[in-house]
Write a structure and sequence with these properties.
The protein is an alpha/beta fold. The chain contains 18 helices and 13 strands. The protein folds into three domains: 212 residues, 3-Layer(aba) Sandwich (Rossmann fold); 103 residues, Ubiquitin-like (UB roll); 93 residues, NADH-ubiquinone oxidoreductase 51kDa subunit, iron-sulphur binding domain (de novo design (two linked rop proteins)). The protein has a five-stranded mixed sheet with strand order 8-7-13-9-10, with no helix packed on it. Strands 3-2-1-4 form a four-stranded parallel sheet, with helices on both faces. The model has no long low-confidence stretch (mean pLDDT 94).
Length: 469
Amino acid sequence: MSEITYKPGKEPHPRETRRIFRNIDRKGYDPSIKCFIKDGGYETLKKAMEMEPSAVTEEVKKSGLRGRGGAGFPTGVKWTFIPKGNTKPVYVVCNCDESEPGTFKDRFVVHQDPHQLIEGMIIACYAVQAHYGVIYMREEFPEAARIMQKALKEAEEAGFLGENILGKGYDLKIILHRGAGAYICGEETGLINSIEGLRPYPRIKPPFFPAAIGLYGCPTIVNNVESLCQVRQVLMRGGEAYAAEGAQRSPGTRIIGVSGDVKRPGYYEIVSGSMTFGELLYDVCGGPKRGRKFKAIIPGGASAKVMRCDEKLKGRNSDGSVKEMSIFDVPLDLDSIAQHGSMSGSGGIIVMDDSRSMPKVLNNLNRFYAWESCGQCSPCREGNPWMLKLSTRICEGKGSPEDVDLLKSVADNICGRTVCAFGEACSWPTQAFVTKFREEFLALTKPINALKPHSAEAKEARKFLSRED
């Protein structure tokens, strides 16, 4: 195979390990099936279909692959949750909604290497013996939808989809379903309701775990784009080889999307745990902008808890002793980030320097979540607009010190009290921002604002501020 070259200015950083993004921004590469097959495409599918479906699942379990969509649940284990002795149809759904603010990785796969996703999805369908698959894509990806529709047609014409695939007696149809751009459809049961033509209210779990009761009441496996592409890598390299690379409990590569106040924002594919936040932000991303310094990082998309860059963290040495560390010393893997109170989530790292007002950043996030709440649960439906009103009032200088405590209290009463994880997604930012940057919120408030507007005390306090008698 000839050496891979990339477009000028799009070359991978020396610290990257391109596997899923191997063909992204590659010179001379296009999304056609002809180009994909020339590069070895669909050979892994042929290998997988020589195996028993259960053996494919075992290989994925052996790899230790964890989902790349946010929760980090073991992919192979999820596949085994389909009830034994099931007689209903099984469905596989690819979550290509990618609606988490700060996340921009899956769209590159669909735009530039769609057959990689299709091959991984076919392997997943074969492993769980699904004969119908759905790629759920948000409405804001019109070009991606066109490319994917063409790729699915090419795969069917080439015999990789349809009836009797590769002469193995296995049938599979995959369709593209476009959503309407709702953030809540990133939640798997809300997504399933959307496919069924219903309002995308998330379902209560239990009993509605998709692997048992999913699309049309049948067992359904929902994986995101990067997870399905990683399935292809597992079968290509072997489960043991895959498990040997990267962090012990979250092996393989991870695609990180860095945005915000760095010199070189963009996407980077790295081996899980192979570098720290400091190495990523200073060595790979070029450090902060001139004259600035890093102030805060959201490590896994907007719903992840913010982390202060000057925060003192505690870690452990190899001998078990406790050591003091900063966020720049934290390895980039799922468990290390979780141990320090946040999450790797969807891999979208949002960086903020010392020019940013944390109350204004939070207000921007609150506006997003107030708009995106599906309205099914009272805590979200009522709490999100309330948090937006409070953070707006504080940012406009109309808040009181008590509003800062009230803002966090509202968030505390949303978290853990909703049908789906949207309750945590919308409340964690407020909890973290207010707790870690409390002094900035208080600096924008005035005690006088706590006075009732029509009280005698308020009128007396305002008499020098207006022309009223």
